[in-house]
Amino acid sequence: MHRAVLTAASTTALVVLLLSLKPHQPAGLTDPSQVGAAPAPSPSGSPRRGGHPADGTYTGAPISTRYGDVQVAATVTAGRLTAVKVLRAPSENGRDREIAAYAVPRLTQEALSVHSARIDAVSGASYTSEGYIRSLQSALDQAGV
Known about the structure:
four-stranded antiparallel sheet
């Protein structure tokens, strides 16, 4: 009986200890120097004066993630996001391609439904989601949306 109580108490203490640990690195970029970095813009349209976005397709920054680069191009029509084309997604191996094939359509669908990059990450595809969202926001920033 004494042994069972001791085992239960030590197991409980171990579980509490494990649950109190925090992850060491947040999902997202693998190179902290890339935060806020943006390449030269390559839009097919340019923002109009007066703050109104111009129609066109804007290429977002390529975002380096743990599993590869993610880059999208956003099409803006009448000041609204109307299309997203994925230019790069992690594809180093079969698992990367599987995750991208699962996550990218969901991210695109959600972005188009809210006409914004303010979308939730796809569970199981944290790095790809973070890269997608940041690249899309970069494109929308260029468009002035």
